Amino acid sequence: MTDDHILAVGVDVGGTKLLGAAVDATGVIRERTRVTTPVGDPDGLVATIAGIAGELGPDLPLGVGVAGIVSPDDTVRYGPNLDIRDLPLGDRLRAELGTTVTVRNDATVALYGELRAGAGRGSEHVVMLTVGTGVGGAVFTHGTLVEGRNGMGGELGHIPIVDGGRRCPCGNRGCLEAYASGTAIEERARERLRDEDGSSALRDVATDALDGKAVTLAALDGDAFAHEVLREAGYYLGVGMVGLVNVFDPELVLVGGGAAATAAPILLPAALEVLGDRLLGIGHRPLPTVVAAELGDDAGVIGAALLADDAAGAT
Amino acid sequence: MTDDHILAVGVDVGGTKLLGAAVDATGVIRERTRVTTPVGDPDGLVATIAGIAGELGPDLPLGVGVAGIVSPDDTVRYGPNLDIRDLPLGDRLRAELGTTVTVRNDATVALYGELRAGAGRGSEHVVMLTVGTGVGGAVFTHGTLVEGRNGMGGELGHIPIVDGGRRCPCGNRGCLEAYASGTAIEERARERLRDEDGSSALRDVATDALDGKAVTLAALDGDAFAHEVLREAGYYLGVGMVGLVNVFDPELVLVGGGAAATAAPILLPAALEVLGDRLLGIGHRPLPTVVAAELGDDAGVIGAALLADDAAGAT
Description:
40% helix; five-stranded mixed beta sheet; 13 strands; alpha/beta
């Protein structure tokens, strides 16, 4: 078997798009497809994934990452953006395809992709935070993915960092997500544009175009106001990292998600500054490396495929 | 070999006292000793531990738990309360005794004791918080103790929960320890006695006798003011648990340390209330069980001995 042999098929089910890929032994995508996610349609979701598996790699192991709570028996307990509850996705796909099927949370498969084929190669202890519309995450410690008893481990966006603070979409106050997500960056920019004077290119952006990405682009273009808004999010990302590094003592912290590719040059130094100031025992330990993830949107399909290949090898 | 055969010797090195015990295969202590910890005296510490090992179980594996940062090579990097830095305790003891020696952080060995012989028996995912002078902790996930790259994992007391909040002994603001430790309970009681009117039995306690224990005893005795102070600490303990349970998704949260035996009936219900309100996906997962640890001050020596026995069996 050569390294460019296709090992497995990976599928990444997001709230809007569904990616599929045929992945080789080096974690490289050999063929890919992208469709709109069937939302609120469990049968359609099963049929779509089965169709992609049949097209890209019939008879190969199939790995699926899903934006939602996935229990260890490959059942999607709750996918809020997919409008799905208690779908035994693994069993349904196995019955349909007759192959090994592994279903996991989307952040978990993305971390696994980075571990095997991206920025996490060779690391044994890695915390990954994904900054996009929300803040997600996953953890690999002592060579094991932290999934927990019900498959709900790694919900790093909902660590309370400012008890009683800003409202989070989850309904609580003060979660990391309420301070460091793309949505939070957008909200803070709007608040500060309203409450503060100062000039900013963001004042010329149409109201409905003002989002986290617009703030990032302005900041990278030298806008001091936008830069400050982004540094504030990076500061809170750092506060979250202080807790997580105190808990896991990893050698590597990865920042992935939509923001990683673009906002990392501003977010990461701000976060590192907090980590360097506040980590426990800072004189007696090395700081972990903090870098952007490498695989972008491909991390999920690559990780899902490689996890499925592992599972097939283990049986 | 019967179950009452002595397996190993455990030693627990605290900032004031040093406990030693001969432990059998069921995790029961068959013989014990207790001396004052030699502080700022590395040679004295090595000699004291070697003496205890020689007395309780010459030729048996020796496990040592130390209040401080212990690296995976059994070196005490930093023990602030012991005034020790970079002491290769494992190597020194192995040279002296010729037996298997395992050195770990004190919270790690205490959790291991609870896992094998206490409240954690049979669990695969456990978060333990120890509430004493400070707040410590340790984590067992997917059957592995979370020690991290440098042996500094599990520093649960220094997760930021109120960024910019109360000052913590570690120098930062807003750590869990600054809100839920015995010291924090004492400080809050003093502040509220000063700032609020209301009657309380604590007003009759001599100033230098007013500590976390006095608050707990008054609360258990029905003092409403003291009860409220303790519930506040329990609330923040719960805020910390929300983050930790979102991260690890454990089936069990243990509360140990000096407070566990006495304050648990007030701290734990307050913490559970927060957990039940704020845990992510609360309708789609069971709440973890939250209980007091069982072994008290013995957890460390028992866990250290059983870890050393495991290490001896593995070689």
